[in-house]
């Protein structure tokens, strides 16, 4: 019985990915609605076969893997364009360009990690939820916050704003984590 559910869920997932590709190419919303419906049915089959805890993650993972295989199978290879001779030589980098890039990268990585861990720690210790829920959400929150901090620090035109913001977030997060709980 489970084998039939697995095959059915995979077929529905493939149909959902195929309908999503048609919706993308033709710019038609009804194919997208059909794709979402097929993926919902596939998720229901996964849940019916493996219960909700495992079924939802299997549905998401099978959707990702089927989409990856589908993209790799339908990818088209285009020939490269000719490289033209440049009339003007490329301009040299400004002095200190590498140092600014290194400083921006270090700020993004280290200060962003400090702020993300401090915010996650503050959430895990001070949120008004059950202990297991706080820990799970904080564990999922830290990598996302770190990625957001890296994005902010690397995309900012002025470096002082992300530095000040991330330092403030980290300091406040550590202060909230140090507060006594009663």
Task: Describe what this molecule looks like in 3D.
This is DUF4040 domain-containing protein. The chain crosses the membrane at residues 29-48, 55-75, 108-128, 135-154, 160-179. Keywords: Membrane, Transmembrane, Transmembrane helix. The chain has two domains: 2-74; 102-178. It is an all-alpha fold and 182 residues long. The chain has five helices and no strands. The chain is flat, with a radius of gyration of 24 Å. The termini are far apart.
| Low confidence ranges | none
**What kind of sheet is the major sheet?**
none
Radius of gyration: 24 Å
Q: Helix/strand/pairing class, anyone?
A: mainly alpha
Order of helices and strands: HHHHH
Instruction: Estimate the mean pLDDT confidence.
Output: 85
Alpha-carbon distance between the termini?
A: 52 Å
Total tally of structural domains: 2
Shape designation: flat
In short:
This is DUF4040 domain-containing protein. It comes from Sphingomonas quercus. The chain is an all-alpha fold and 182 residues long.
